[in-house]
Amino acid sequence: MGYSYNPKSLCADEFINDEEILETLAFADAHKDDVQLCYDILEKCKPHLHPASEHGAMITHREASVLLACEDAGVNAAIKQLAHDIKQAYYGNRIVLFAPLYLSNYCVNSCLYCPYHAKNREIPRRKLTQDEIRAEVIALQDMGHKRLAIEAGEDPKHNPIEYILESMDTIYSIKHKNGAIRRVNVNIAATTVEEYRMLKKAEIGTYILFQETYNKEGYKRLHPTGPKSDYNWHTEAMDRAMEGGIDDVGLGVLFGLESYRYEFAGLIMHAEHLEAVHGVGPHTISVPRVKPAMDIDPDVFDNGIPDEMFEKIIALIRITVPYTGMIISTRESQAVRERALRYGISQISGGSRTSVGGYTEQARPHDTEQFDVSDQRTLDDVVSWLIDQEHAPSFCTACYRAGRTGDRFMSFCKSGQILNYCHPNALVTLAEYLTDYAKPDTSQKGFALIERELLKVEDEKRRRQCAEAISAVVHKGERDLRF
Ligand code: SF4
Question: Which candidate in 146, 347, 379, 475 could, as Cys together with 327 as Cys, close a disulfide (CB 3.0–4.6 Å)?
């Protein structure tokens, strides 16, 4: 049966339409040498050209694909510069920090790129008890984390929704010293509207589900068995999540599995689809690349992308979906992360362990890891490194807890309001971190950064309130103050 492209359709074959993607790639090839067209497309995205309410027009997946295909050095430099400017306009120099928490590596699927696949008989299977989760969360709180992304394989017997809900409840309930986990994002398999409703009730932050690949044929090859092998069920999951009341959803592609140009067009079309149907685009977009792990050799997948192209993709996602939070994990090295931060990344993980129960082990365990961690620095090292580059590390979770989610967050972000709230919130939460967890050297330069950043809060009243809140954190021991 032939499908035609329709971004408003709820059928995956129509909103991620193969024919439309192939035509997009042909269109991009036909126009990639038209340097003037590329500059014209970039011009439309410049934040200062638009009133605050729009704050930068979004371009289409076709236009973005032309930019991706263009090989002109001048255009490519302009793409990176514009991505940097857009990140500054929407998010300022704040970088939000989080950590993954692996609950269980039991899984009934057979994804060819993941060591948790059901046929891997070598990997020790492990699922954390609630007591073990408590110990992990305390270890994470002692590092200074406030925001987690919980991860579990798909296994109705070992990891049913009740287990995930109970785990979220446990995580939110732990108050250890001055620590608290204030936002739990959830990365679990595609499920029913009913179960998404349960996650919403349990106060999920963002529901994260990586598409892995938008190429349906490739998807079938990479997922030979298990519930995840159903491409449409997986691709339509975000619509069910939104129907279930979750309005912050996070997209992502596993770059390296299939052609990056196809994936890029599919990813942008998915964002356009969410905007067209729900009026809310993706809250976040992640950019993982296939990495080595037990039983997994990334060279088996012949679509690996070099760092230079990877950075261009990051820059173009920032330009095309300017309001979205962009996430890069410790899969990537310090050097790649450093450059990616310049081109639009707004959230990073730090001090991560990608094994089940990894945070309570003295040495980094490898036996249950989902992927090799390239950036193995501690959270404090990461905070210190961000400060050295004049980024403002943020542990803020205020929007979600003040009900600024979904379309409310989007209009807040698109109208530039984020800077009046997020910047002060970033500084107050950084002051908490520096007071409670930082090494003396990090603390010293962190407070010096706060002094400099306070001057950027334009509204005088808000600047005074922010300074007062920071003083209350440092001198009166108050916590969880927010705007
Ligand atoms: S990617 Fe997810 S679903 Fe696939 S094998 Fe790994 S844990 Fe299971």
Answer: 347
Whether residues 263 and 303 share a domain: the answer is yes
Question: What are the tokens at 214?
Answer: 């938008």
C-alpha–C-alpha distance, residues 188 and 463, integer Å: 40
- CB of 228 within 6 A of ligand 1: the answer is yes
Is any atom of ligand 1 closer than 6 Å to the C-beta of 70? no
For 258-272, write each residue's pLDDT tens digit: 999 999 999 999 999
Residue 411 has pLDDT above 90, yes or no: no
Nearest CA to ligand 1 atom 2: 153
CA distance 98 to 86: 22
Rounded to the nearest angstrom, the distance between the alpha carbon of 212 and the centre of ligand 1 is 10
- Both 226 and 278 in a single domain? yes
CA-to-CA distance for 313 and 303, rounded, in angstroms?
14
List the residue whose alpha carbon is closest to atom 5 of ligand 1.
117
**Domain end among 30, 59, 88:** 88
Q: Which atom number of ligand 1 is nearest to the Cα of residue 105?
A: 7
Residue-by-residue DSSP string for 387-398: HHTT-EEE---H
Is the CB of 222 within 6 Å of ligand 1? no
Q: Do the Cβ atoms of 217 and 257 come closer than 8 Å?
A: no
pTM: 0.95
Torsion of CA 472, 478, 480, 482, to 10 degrees: -20
Are 136 and 154 part of one and the same domain? yes
Tell how strand 183-187 and strand 325-328 pair up: unpaired
Domain count, the chain: 3
How long, in residues, is the chain? Answer: 483
As a whole number, the mean pLDDT across the chain is: 93
Residue range(s) defining the domain that contains residue 235: 91-401
Long-range residue pairs from 346-349, CB within 8 A, at least 24 positions apart, any chain: 346/87, 346/91, 346/94, 346/95, 346/96, 347/95, 347/96, 347/97, 347/98, 347/284, 348/95, 348/96, 348/97, 348/98, 348/382, 349/97, 349/98, 349/99, 349/100, 349/149
- Angle of the 440-454 helix axis to the 379-388 helix axis, nearest 10: 40
Residue 406 lies in a domain: no
Kindly tell me if the per-residue pLDDT of 53 is higher than 60: no
CB 268 within 8 A of CB 321: yes
